[in-house]
Amino acid sequence: MNSKKLRPASLAVATLLAAMAMSAQAQETRRSYIVQLANAPVASYEGGIAGLPATKPAPGSRLDVSAADVKAYIAYLEQKQNDVISTINPAHITHRYDVVLNGFAAMLTDSEVRALKKNSGVARIEADEMLQPYTSYTSSFLGLDKAAGLWEQAGGKDKAGEDMIIAIVDSGVWPENLSFADRVDANGVPTHDPSGTLAYGPPPAKWKGAGCETSRGSDSGSVKASNCNNKLLGVRSFVALNAPIAATEFLTGRDGGGHGTHVASTAGGNANVPSTINGIDMGSMSGVAPRARIASYKTCFTGTTATNGGCATASSVSSINQAVKDGADVINYSIGPTAGGGTLNDAIQAAFLNASNAGVFVAAAGGNSGPNTNPVSNLGPWHATVAASTHDRTVGAEAVVEGSGSYVGASVNQTPVASSNLILATAAALSGANPTQADLCYGAADGVVTLDPVKVAGKIVVCTRGATARVNKSLAVLQAGGIGMILADNGAGLVAEPHSVPTIHINAADGVAVKNFVAANPAAQGSIGVAQVRFGDVLAPQTAGFSSRGPNVANNNILKPDFAAPGVDIVAGYVPGLTAAEASAIRGGASTSKTAEGMISGTSMASPHVAGLAALIKQQRPSWTPAMIKSALATTAGDTYNDGVNLPLAWSATANANGRLPWAQGSGQVRPNLATDPGLVYDATAIDYARFTCGLSLNMFSAATCAAVGTIQPHNLNLASLTAASVMGSQTLTRTVTNVSDSSATYTAKVEMPGFNVEVSPSSFTIAPGAKQTYTVKLTRSTAPLDTWVYGSLTWSDGTRNVRSPLTARATALAAPASVYSEAASGSKLFTIGTGFAGSMVVERGGLKAATRSAATLTGTNTGTATTICRANNSPAVKVHDVAVPAGTLAMRFSLFNADTTGGQLAGKEDDLDMLLLDNAGNALAGSLNDGSNESVQLTSPAAGNYKVCVISYSLQGRPSTNYTLSSWIVGPSDVGGNFRVLAPANAVIGGTATVGMSWSGLPLGQRYLGAAAYRVGGVRQGVTLLEVLTNDPVPLAKSGRPVNAQE
């Protein structure tokens, strides 16, 4: 589809330095920013202000915003916010936060941002980003309905999740869906009919919300007060009033896209809801926690174009803030950056941290860029990040290729295709068409027609998945006169969905077999059958091919994802198809009775499974903290089946994308029936998280708080996984477990860890109910290769319960920060490195060096895969800059900035330029494909040779062309500037640490400078630390991606 950027699977994702997100040139255009203030938000305030007692709840308790102390502190924060807001134009404030964040969002000019940076009451400013949603039977697949299953543990399905409140931060909700009715008919089927029997009591006392928000801006009627009931407690919207909504979208909390409705009904929708997909009876649906109450907070919207919709970070934080204030027990967040990755200290992560401190469990989707396109996102340790896995119910059909065999695949087809001629898409290509695009069945919807109607007419076309939306391929076949499509998978996993012609989606191996047979037999014939619900055709669970993988790019010592849950072909509530006129009538107050179900795949669908499970566990274990719930789900999880994937991960050279490794499945597939009695749990408190963030200097807590609580190393945060990213000879990890059973037990450790000698101390212990036990795990490298990830496990067993944790480690000779940052023209920085060797160390330095700036022009726009476009280099919408890199280069970086483009002066109308770095053979080495034109790619210690920096025009907002300036840095040992100095010890010891100092002075103002220090051991570089100095008083940049759900 045209609404997303197309990334090759081999594309290396450049990990941008946090400090690089800065703009150079003053503009008085207003843009959206999130401003965090110095005082702690309600959820983490520990007292210290005269007359204002602490408001942070005790572990295991929920925040009560109706408490007098909380109200008083909120009033105090409001006054402090007013003091800061009075220094800017108050008319441009868009959101205010107090519970999970202290601050506000506002449309600010560059000069206002720079003034706020100097305000002592301001702790942090970041650019608002437009994120994207990560787009029945699975409850049975998880065993919830089995004897002694979680539903039975709760007293039956009719009590599962009773009075738990699940908040859905997403695209809104379709209230008329039966998943959200609070009445049942005589057969126990949910109904909105007022004559039905009321099935729910009044909202629980903890609910503090206001019900349905019935009017928002120009949308005065699409949600009515009566849409809220005892099941659907609240419907709110935090979408901007001036959002460019599509003709079938709504400003209120009504869902215009379907994603939020699907997520909400998956997590906590009613049981016994009939469902039909494309005419196929799918049986009765049920949410994971069918008796939970639902509160919907609309953050995402469908835009008027393919590029201007999404989920603003400022809106997301408002939604999370309100959900906690309203009394939610669980929050689901199936949203994230499509470019993957992220940080631990952005506004969303700060909100999640404080939601956890408030006693609220957060489930978040890990992303849909697997197996190796982009890294997992939603990276904080204080919430659960969920991978998507398969289940064994499929909706499928059979394709018969005469002379070759029968092939079963995913399909919802209800129109059989009798024996007809088959043709490969490559054989059906128009003369002169790009053969790769033809194989992928590019069509008019993709901006490139590749199929020849003369060749295709009356035939079944064999297409390959990838690059374009799957549904665009069948549309291309239809437009060329084809009567059916066999879609060969590319390893990302099968998806059943409606198509323009009868379609069956077969796996990659079968696709190769079909293609080979048809290529050898041009007169081959085949047929496509009618779809039906099937069981046992696939081995499940496996990690879905599209599910994003780790390691965690924000900190390799924190395992992400945490675990996997069903996320493929999930049947749940959806939104009905509407015309623009119908949507307009609803916005004007017209009622509707239309409903729909949908079958969708994505980590967006996996996350609400965990949200529902958390509600079920919280119902039965009300004193458990969010960390205890996450631990119970993690340590009772089981391995998924091997998916056969064997691919490298660009963001971690020696990691692998195999679906059974921790980077893909986390701790494994959740096994919820074990989770209420795990034996031992790993708890983490607000103080633990504060120590963790203070140790990493994330600036999420004040200096006074960090001094009071101290610090811990990231590998020692008390998580249910054990990950050591830099074992320098040996390393010791510390954990503490709590016995949550009703009896004393003796646990014994069992360790599997190739390449390391592992010592667990104590190796056995007896623990009383409610008691805690601390243990250590000492890893000593034996045969493990350096800089290579090794995978194992640690299991504590009492003979009945097995408390299992993934154990992952990487031995290294040196651990040094990737970058340090400053805005001072003269200054110094000290930081610590770790050494895994004994002997001498030589430090090479280069820089500081100002950017080399190169101007160019692009005309028109592109569609298609970025690598293909750059290799072809045959369009005025592509510019390739040739770069020669000399031997000994320490680092090279190439950057674009919105401010350096024609559209950079127009908020909301910026050019969208992308950038790839390729070697001379055309292999993609790094890429940056954000919204807008704030892009950067870099390599450290690159090989000498010729490289290509490719700048691609993706969208010019209707303008015919744009001018841009490329900023480049190629830093080598001969580059000097700014009196740059690096001081480091000349010798190191195994397992030791050392302090490195950098200093500089006299840099001219108004520039961006880059320097580098490389650590050479035995003549070989073991690492590089970059120093970035921006003397241009920068303002934060936004970096966002486009929708990459499971649609390609």
Biggest sheet details = 8 strands, mixed
Beta-strand proportion: 25-35%
What is the average per-residue confidence, as pLDDT, rounded to a whole number?
Answer: 91
Number of helices: 18
CATH fold label of the largest domain: Rossmann fold
Estimated helix fraction = 10-25%
Cα-atom radius of gyration: 28 Å
The first-to-last residue Cα distance is: 8 Å
Number of strands: 61
CATH homologous superfamily of the largest domain, by name? Answer: Peptidase S8/S53 domain
Structural class: alpha+beta
CATH top-level class of the largest domain: Alpha Beta
Low-confidence stretches: 1-27, 1040-1048
Number of domains: 5
In the CATH hierarchy, what is the architecture of the largest domain at level 2? 3-Layer(aba) Sandwich
> So what's the overall shape?
globular
What does this structure look like?
- The chain is of the alpha+beta class and 1048 residues long.
- The protein has 5 domains: 30-108, no CATH class; 132-391 and 542-620, Peptidase S8/S53 domain (Rossmann fold, 3-Layer(aba) Sandwich); 393-535, Glucose Oxidase, domain 1 (3-Layer(bba) Sandwich); 685-717, no CATH class; 815-1036, Sandwich (Jelly Rolls).
- The chain is built from 18 helices and 61 strands.
- The strands form 16 sheets. Strands 21, 22, 23, 24, 25, 26, 27 and 28 form an 8-stranded mixed beta sheet that branches. Strands 11-14-7-17-19-20-29 form a 7-stranded parallel beta sheet, sandwiched between helices. Strands 35-42-41-37-39 form a 5-stranded mixed beta sheet, with no helix packed on it.
- β24 (460-464), α10 and β25 (484-488) form a beta-alpha-beta unit.
- α5 packs parallel to α13 and α6 (313-326) runs parallel beside α7 (347-357).
- It is globular, with a radius of gyration of 28 Å.
- The relative contact order is 0.12.
